[in-house]
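To close the chapter, one final illustration. This time we ask the reader to focus less on the individual chains and more on the assembly as a whole: which components sit near each other, and how the overall shape emerges from the parts.
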Amino acid sequence: MGDHAHGPAKGLSRWLFTTNHKDIGTMYLWFSFAMFILGGSFAMIIRAELFQPGMQLVEPGFFNQMTTLHGLVMVFGAIMPSFVGLANWMIPMMIGAPDMALPRMNNWSFWILPPAFLMLASTLFMEGGAPGFGWTFYAPLSTTYAPPSVTFFIFAIHILGLSSIMGSINIIATVMNMRAPGMSYMKMPLFVWTWLITAFLLVAVMPVLAGAVTMMLMDIHFGTSFFSAAGGGDPVLFQHIFWFFGHPEVYIIILPAFGVVSQIIPAFSRKPLFGYDSMVYATAAIAFLSFIVWAHHMYTVGMPIAGELFFMYATMLIAVPTGVKVFNWVTTMWRGSLSFETPMLFCVGFLILFTIGGFTGLMLSIAPADFQYHDSYFVVAHFHYVMVAGAVFSMSAAVYYWLPKWCGRMYNETMGKTHFWISFIGFNITFFPQHFVGLAGMPRRIPDYALQFADFNMMSSIGAFIYGASQILFLYNVVATIVSGKPVSDDKVWDGAEGLEWTVPTPAPYHTFEVPPKIDPAHAHT
Amino acid sequence: MFRVSRNPAIDTTAKLVVVAVAMFAFVFVIMVPLYNVLCDALGINGKTSGQAYTAVQAGVDESREITIQFVATNNEGMPWEFGPEDRIMKVHPGASNTTIFHARNPLPKAMVAQAIPSVSPSRAAEYFHKTECFCFNQQPLDGETSAEMPLQFIIDRDLPRDIRTITLSYTLFDVTAMAGDAVAAR
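The assembled structure is written out below.
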């Protein structure tokens, strides 16, 4: 144990062989940002093509590859790894543990990710092009009619699924076994709670996704007929399996975001989180309900009326625990001593825009109405309000909130606020008009559109370019902070911040909590 | 509680690995069979039974007449000429009816086809009993030959009274590649 005081190793091998949760968290965060830029550049191509009606820049087939890869890279490459990175950095520091429970597996779960995405991106240069069947890869479009590169796509999904499962097992093992003495479950910070529940969701449904792509692989190469009607299979079965994974997946994306917001809003309201217990139960309720609502993505496949009704009511039920959360956040702010630094701005933006996305979700849950909304730009607008304004906004908030703790330097507040306002305005210019074109009948995933949608689409594209550019400002601000930000020496950084991570020195040393901290029993969850 | 290892982290991990493997198996051994069983049992999805129906003598319901429409479609890339002898039949529930479908393979090579049925409205699927159907088996056909493919069916007397028209649609798939060896043997 004598060499425990050492710092990180030098050179490239530090990153290749590291088992340090902070190093691995940092790599996850940088990797996810790189994927965010890659997925974002695919989105820029989509919006450039849709700037005007008619075919402008790219072939329709390439357009489809862009929508497919944009979805896959953003969901599996940007959002999910970014929250895993945050979990790696923060969970041990929040529960008073010296590191993750399985540090070597932690190293593996990160390092298999870059090859997986390299392989996925390389399909763009293969004969027949990249997969163009949408991020939902419905069979038989993704089996019988798929390009040859689909096999690489399947392998990439297998690897990143494995990475997610390993990462989430690690998180569960850490939270269940390595909490500091005195930190009971109901004293854990809410970010730890939401991640614990998310990790259980991941362990349950990533294998289902692996099963779905394995069946595709067998249909394509080994002559089975899981999804081929000619051999007695059923393409609709694919949709059931996919969405049995896919619906829990969207909560996998949003629950850690809920956790982040539940840490930041109390800090800048200078009040404890309102209704901690109900927040925990609401998170668990959302996780449970996520398993019984999958078919609301497929109202139009020709389900019996009893099925439509069941999935409609079950889906609407989710609005109850989600409402509990939103009201708790608002109530936390109520009569608080509010200040609006960049993390808080992003959280308030999250709160407003995520609620809008929640309401459009409620509209989509109504089975008879969904027949009109299905596969239209209304759906695109809905899930970008919850994915971007939900997950990405909260991730930005998290970076601004914890960056001073990570690197011991303060970011430029003016630049941070500018990033927020440009993001907020650009985001709404991009996605708000998509509600209108969707309701008017513009289908998603099509490179051309009818003339009456031209104005709104031009607005959307301009907004998207603004939103995209604002992320460059974000990158600049983060890099400038790390290189030459104003040093911070206060352990707490934010005067209203609570939690064990603010009791360690700033910047956080390479090893923290080698001796478990004492938890003040009178001090409730933070 | 049952412990796999004395190291608590390894213990938790081992249990979670079992959960993950079980969920992977769940897709194959539970979800796929369950889906097929549910579709069969509830008659949802417009699928008729893949097995021949054994007729039960229950008499013919002369009080009403059901219109049966036949639709034949070729799946993409299927070159056969394929169509029903009768486009429309008027039948009584409980009566046994026979019709034929015509198929012709215009190519100079032997091929194998599989017809996949679908009934609309899907509620009617469980009342549409086939005593004999060309869709129960794959249909091989030598090059440039044609065949008459029989269909015998009975509409159940319990068919809901609000259903007056039933459409039976067949989609013909080219399964020559799947049936590979059988064709080579011919």
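The interface with chain A takes residues 8-9, 12-13, 16-17, 19-21, 23-24, 26-28, 31-32, 35-36, 39, 42, 44-46, 50, 75, 114, 116, 122-123, 171, 173-175, 178 of chain B (CB under 8 Å). Residues 182-186 of chain B have pLDDT under 50 and may be disordered. With these observations in hand, you are ready for the problems at the end of the chapter.
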